[in-house]
Amino acid sequence: MLKPLLALILCVASGMAGAEVLVTDDTGATVRLAQPAQRIVTLAPNLVETLFAAGAGGKLVGTVEFSNYPEAARKVPLVGSYSRLDLEAVAALKPDLVIAWHSGNAPAHIDKLRALGLPIYFSQPDRIEDVAAEIERFGILAGTSKIGNAAAQQFRERLAGLKKTYSTRPPVRTFYEIWQQPLATVGKNQIISSVIRLCGGENVFEKLDSLAPIVTVEAVIAANPEAIVASGMGESRPEWLDDWKRWTSITAVARSNLFFVLPDLIQRHTPRLLDGAERLCQHLETARSRRPRG
Fold it and tell me: Which of 59, 78, 87, 288 lies 20 to 30 A from 9 at CA?
């Protein structure tokens, strides 16, 4: 509640001061604009989605590779990838706001953009609830608060419905696999852990601090998850998810609880995260239905 409340206070303050905009980003830094941004560059695909949700897609002048949603995002000029930015291309677009991904963009790149005098807003929503606040703040930054606030409210209402349905369901010990080589999962501060909790699941590696810790097959076997969920990189179920079938001692394998969720729906911090949450919740419900009766 603190982030959206602070953003609201700053929005009111900016209204009192005329056209000036003041917003606190996810690092706690204050972003100050003389007026709502008219030329915005986003440095990660998830930021594009949220910007469009806030009604500010028309102010987007540059973005990075894999910014494929909504369809209009595909027409925006590219400035490299989130990990390999073309800094000259960013500067050439003359943005009055750059929205960066705090845990994804290289600090050295951000420092160079800041040295050019470009205002930087850092995004890092680590809980599902943070997505709604992010939509509101993007609306403030771009002067589209009416649309942004409505989208945020819709997100919160849908989230509340999912909580009501799934949060009290019997827990399902869950292993979420980001990638096979190296074997990567999600720690307690990664937003996917928040999704697992929403669905009444328990991340078997919840205690790890890293956002994407590397684990071993032996650690997964020892954790004995009841469900294994993977996303991979594309729209198809990754073939390596079935590699777990050799480890028949794992409950998830014994009960055929090997599930796939489209990566764009669950690995991006966007409003579509709730679409991914719905699919994950349904998979965990399937796992519950396969428990022995007696």
Answer: 59
CA-to-CA distance for 153 and 149, rounded, in angstroms?
Answer: 6
pLDDT at 238: 84
Q: What φ, ψ does residue 175 adopt, rounded to 5°?
A: -110, 120
Looking at residue 126, its pLDDT comes to 86
* Residue 14: partners with Cβ closer than 8 Å, 6 or more residues away: 20, 21, 22, 140
Average pLDDT along the chain: 91
The model's pTM is 0.87
| Segment 262-272, tens digit of pLDDT | 999 998 889 99
Residue 2 and residue 25: Cα distance in Å, rounded?
Answer: 12
Taken in order 157, 201, 47, 78, the sign of the CA dihedral is negative
Q: How far apart are CA 283 and CA 199, in angstroms?
A: 9
- 10 Å Cβ neighbour count for 12? 11
